[in-house]
Amino acid sequence: MRNTIKITTAVLAAGALTLGLTACGSEEESGSDASGPLTVAASPVPHAEILNFVKDNLAEKAGLDLEVKEVTDYVTPNTSTEDGSVDANYFQTQAYLDDFNKKNGTHIVPAGDVHLEPLGLYSEKVKAADELKSGATIAIPNDTINEGRALQLLAANKIITIKDGVGFEATPSDVTGNPKKLKFKELEAAQTPRALADVDAAVVNGNYAIGADLKPAEDALVLESAEGNPHANFLAVKEGNEDDPRVKKLAELLTSDEVKKFIDDKYAGSVVAAF
Question: What are phi and psi of 114, to 5 degrees?
Answer without folding.
Answer: -125, -55
